[in-house]
Amino acid sequence: TIHIQVRAFDTSGNASAWSSPATDHTTASDVTAPPVTSAPVVSNYLGVLKIAWDGLTSTGGSELAAAPDFDHVEVHLSTASGFTPSTSTYFDRLYAAGVVVYTDGVYGTTYYAKLVPVDGSGNKGAASGQGSDAPA
Predict the structure, then answer these.
(1) Are 111 and 101 in contact (CB under 8 A)?
(2) Contact criterion met (CB below 8 Å) for 123 and 30
(3) Which fold would CATH assign to domain 41-133?
(4) 10, 38, 104, 106: which is deepest, by most CB within 10 A?
(5) pLDDT tens for the 136 residues of the chain, in order
(6) Domain segments of the chain: what residues?
(7) Are 118 and 72 in contact (CB under 8 A)?
(8) At the top level of its lineage, which domain of life is listed (predicted)?
(9) What angle do CA 97, 36, 93 make, to 5 degrees?
């Protein structure tokens, strides 16, 4: 709830009294989740995994343009294909297009990554498609 009062000034700098009583205004809650992101690109590099995101939605538009209150994407990792992101699969976050590096992978084991978009109100969008690779 926001409490609002107004006061007027003329061109000579004279001020009126504050309006009374204050008016209360309640803003609507943001319950709209950001759109699904593009799938991450996972690649092996010198035995570690690079997980990259291009900053786009699943339809190729800018995530920030599609959701102006976009805050970050959660990066989730699992050794199970088709996994559902959860607190146990959370690895890191990206605030814009970029790369995170996973250094604890087991050589020869395939890791799957998905992204979950989050807005400034904490609303989470649906998980992206998955990308995968194995440290080698």
Answers:
(1) no
(2) yes
(3) Immunoglobulin-like (2.60.40)
(4) 38
(5) 677 888 899 999 899 988 887 777 777 788 899 999 999 999 999 999 999 999 999 999 999 999 999 999 999 999 999 999 999 999 999 999 999 999 999 999 999 999 999 999 999 999 999 999 999 9
(6) 41-133
(7) yes
(8) Bacteria
(9) 40
